[in-house]
Design goal:
Helix content is 32%, strand content 24%. With 160 residues, it is of the alpha+beta class. The protein has a single domain, classed as Aminopeptidase (3-Layer(aba) Sandwich), CATH 3.40.630. α1 crosses α2.
Amino acid sequence: MTLVAAAEPVHVDAVVVLLEELDKFYGDTDVEPLDVRVRQINEALFGDPPLAFAVLAWDAEALVGLATYSFLWPAAGLTRSLYLKELYVAETARGRGVGKLLMDRLIEIAATNSCSRIEWTTDRDNTQAQRFYEKLGVAQNGDKIFYRLEDQLLPMTDAR
C-alpha cells in the first residue's frame, strides 16, 4: 500500500536520491555534491519561510514518488493557485497509481488552501506525462506561452 504524506526534514536523504533519478530522467549527467543537494533541499522545503512544499509517496520504506509545489497569487481575481513544479514517480513504481495518489493529495491541499486552480507544465517531448494527465481528464491549456530567464542573464549568488 502506498502512503502519501508531507515531506519532513528526516526525509531529505531519500528525497536527494529520488531527485537524482529525476535529474537523470531529464538527461542531466552532472549533479551537485551530496552535501550541496542536502543543503538546497533543506533550505527550499524547511527554511523559514519555506520556498516550496513537497508531498512524498512511500511504498513501505521506499520513496517512490514526489510532488513539489508552491502557492501563487493572484490567480483568478484575487484567489491563489497551487503551482505544481515537479511530479515524479520512480521508474520502478510507474503504472501503479502513485502519480494519481500524488495528484489527489495536491487537489486536497489546493482545496484546503482555497485555491481556485492547480497549474503545471510538462516538456513537449514528455509524452508519457501528457498521457498521464489526459487519463486524469485534464486537457492542455494552450492559452499561455512559457518563458524562462536563466544562467548568464540571471545574476546569482554563490548559493547554488
